[in-house]
Amino acid sequence: MRIVVVSAGLSVPSSTRLLGDRLAAAVGRHSGAAVEFEVVELRDLAVEIAHHLTNGFPGRKLGAAIDAVTSADGLIVVTPVFSASYSGLFKSFFDVIEKDALAGMPVLIAATGGTARHSLVLDHALRPLFAYLRAVVVPTGVYAASEDWGAQGLDGRIEQAAGELVGMMAGRAARRTAEPEVVPFAERLAALSGSSGA
Amino acid sequence: MQFGIFSVGDVTPDPTTGRTPTERDRIKAMVAIALKAEEVGLDVFATGEHHNPPFVPSSPTTMLGYIAARTERLVLSTSTTLITTNDPVKIAEDFAMLQHLADGRVDLMMGRGNTGPVYPWFGQDIRQGINLAVENYALLHRLWREDVVDWEGKFRTPLQGFTSTPRPLDGVPPFVWHGSIRSPEIAEQAAYYGDGFFHNNIFWPADHTKRMVELYRSRYAHYGHGTAEQAIVGLGGQVFMRKNSQDAVREFRPYFDNAPVYGHGPSLEDFTEQTPLTVGSPQQVIEKTLAFRDYAGDYQRQLFLMDHAGLPLKTVLEQLDLLGEEVVPVLRKEFANGRPAEVPEAPTHASLLAAKEVTVA
Questions:
Q1: What residues in B contact A194, CB-CB < 8 Å?
Q2: What is the average pLDDT score of chain B?
Q3: What is the CATH number of the domain that holds B195?
Q4: How far apart are CA B358 and CA B182, in angstroms?
Q5: Could you tell me which chain A residue has the CA closest to the CA of B270?
Q6: What was the pLDDT predicted at B117?
Q7: How does pLDDT run across A91-109, given as a tens digit for each residue?
Q8: Which helix (H) or strand (E) holds B360?
Q9: Mean pLDDT, residues A47-66 taken together
Q10: pTM of the model as a whole
Q11: Residues of A (43-82) whose Cβ lies below 8 Å from B
C-alpha cells in the first residue's frame, strides 16, 4: 500500500503539512498492513506547475509528483483556505493532472485555516472537485483552524477520517494501471459507420 | 530519409524591432522559404492550416500549387490538414488536383486541429473530434480508391454515385501521414491503414514521443503492413543555429522569451534540455537530431520548424542555408549509417506507383 500526502502549505513549518503528517500517522496506525508514505509539497513545485499550465507538459520534478499521485493506492490532500476556497496552487496541481487519472482513487480531504468559520470549504470546494475527478472521498473531512491545535476534538476527527480511508482502501481491488487502452480501429469505425460500407 | 521544414504560418511581431509583417509579407515569406528549401537541397515543405488570426495559411492547396509551379523536386505537404472540419470530399478533390499540377510531388498530414472555435465555425462539434477524424478519413480513403462511391455516415450528407475528380494521378492516392501529439486513437488509425504517423514532438519530452511511436509501430505490425521497424514515422524538430553556439543563444533568446507558444514560461535552457528545441551550433543540432533515433527508431521524415516567433525572413533564409549546407548532409550520412536494409524510405509518388505496378504485374 502506498499513500501520497499532497500538501499545499506555503510556510515552513506549515500547519497544513502538520495536519497532513498527523493524518498519515493515523492512517499508519489504523492499517494492518505495511503502508508506505510519500509527501508531495506543492510549494516546491509551484514554478513547474505554472510552466505546465503555459507549456502543456510537466518538468521533471512535477512529472515525478504526478506519477506518484496517480499511481498511489490512496491520497491525503491538504490545502490552506485562501479567499474562501482551496488555494490556487492546490487547484492548479489538480488542473494539470489528466482528468481520468484519479478515477476510483480513495481520497481523504483536509484543510487548514485561521478560523473555524471556513470549515465548510471541505464540502463546498474540495468534495465537488474530487467528485468531478471521479475520486472516492471518505465521508469525514478534517478541518483544522488555528484554535484547534490547542483544543480537544481534532484528534478524534483525524482518527475517524484515517479509519475511513483505511477501510475504503481495504475494500478495493488494486487500482488499474494508467496505460492507454487501444480500441481496435475496426470497432471504432463500425460504431460510426454501420451503413457506410467502409 | 527525407528532411524538410514545416511552417505554422503565424504572423508574429519581431520582438527585437516591434515590427509586425503584413499578411501579404508573411504569405510571400512562406513562399520564399519554400523555394529556399528546394535551393538548399531539402526534400519537403509543409504548411499548416489555420482559420483564425494571427495565422495566414487557411488555403494550403492554393499556396502549395503556386510553390509547385516554381519548384522542381520539393515534396509539398501539410502540417496539418484538418480532417475534422474540412469536407473530406473537398480534400479529395483539392489534393488530387494539386497532385496533377505538381506531377505527384504531394502528400499530406491529417490532423484534428486544437483551436476550439474552428469546429463550430465549420458546423462541427469538438467533442466529436476523434469520430470526425475516423469517419471523414474513411470516406476520403474510399474517394481516392473507388471511382464511384455510395456512402452514408453520421457527419456529412450521403453520397450516391459520386466520383471525386480529378482521379488521383496514375491511380495512386497521395501518401497520408496522421499527425497526433497525444491521442493513441490516431496512432491506431495510422497503423490500421498502413499510413505514416507523424509525432510533432517539438514541445514534448522524449519519453512521451517514444510511447506514442512505439504504440504506432506495434499496431502497424499487428495489422500486417510489415514489421514494427518498417512502420513510417515522422518527427518534428525546432532549431536556431549560428556558427558559435553563444551567438545563437544570444540572438534567439528574445524570440524565445516572447514567442506566443512558450514565451514568458520556462527558461530557454530548461526548454532546450527537455524538448527537441536546439539553439546552438550546427554540430549541436546534428547531435540532438541524431539522438531522436535512440527513442523513435530508424525513421523516414524529419521536419524542422524554422520560421516562427517573429524571426525576420532574412534570418530564416540564413538558417536554411546552414540547415542545407552544414546539417542535413551530415544527418543523411549518419542516419544511413547502421540503418537496416529492410527499413523503407518514406513513400513517394514514384515508389507508390512502382509498388502498384508490381502488384498488378
A1: none
A2: 96
A3: 3.20.20.30
A4: 37
A5: A59
A6: 94
A7: 999 999 998 999 999 999 9
A8: helix B349-360
A9: 91
A10: 0.88
A11: 50-51, 54-57, 59-60, 63
Q: Which fold has domain A2-192?
A: Rossmann fold (3.40.50)
Out of B151, B184, B203, closest to residue A182 by CB:
B184
CB A73 within 8 A of CB A136: no
Give residue A175's pLDDT: 60
Q: Could you please report the per-residue DSSP string of B2-56? A: EEEEEE--B----TTT-----HHHHHHHHHHHHHHHHHTT--EEEE---SSTTB-
Q: Is B64 in contact with B98 (CB distance < 8 Å)?
A: yes
For B285-338, write each residue's pLDDT tens digit: 999 999 999 999 999 999 999 999 999 999 999 999 999 999 999 999 999 999
Any chain B CB within 8 A of the CB of A12? no
Q: Looking at per-residue confidence, does B182 or A148 come out higher?
A: A148
ipTM for the assembly? 0.74
Inspect the interface and report whether the beta carbons of A183 and B185 lie closer than 8 Å.
yes
A59/B270 CB distance under 8 A? yes
Do residues B176 and B196 make contact, with C-beta atoms less than 8 angstroms apart? yes
Residues of A in contact with B204 (CB under 8 A): 57
Q: Under an 8 Å CB criterion, which residues of B touch A?
A: 130-131, 134-135, 138-139, 141-142, 150-154, 184-185, 188-189, 191-192, 203-205, 208, 215, 219, 262, 264-266, 270-271, 274-275
- Axis-axis angle for helices A185-192, B184-193 (nearest 10): 100
User: Alpha-carbon torsion B86, B66, B195, B276, what sign?
Assistant: negative
- Say which residue, B121 or B205, is predicted with more confidence: B121
Nearest by CB: A193 against B138, B184, B274: B138
Could you tell me the CA-to-CA distances from B174 to A192, B108, B191 in Å, in that order? 25, 7, 17
Percentage of chain A exceeding pLDDT 70: 92
Q: Do B192 and A185 touch (CB under 8 A)?
A: yes
How is chain A split into domains, by residue range? 2-192
Q: Evaluate if residue A193 carries a pLDDT over 90.
A: no
Number of domains in chain B: 1
Say what the pLDDT of residue A198 is. 41
Residue B255: domain span: 2-360
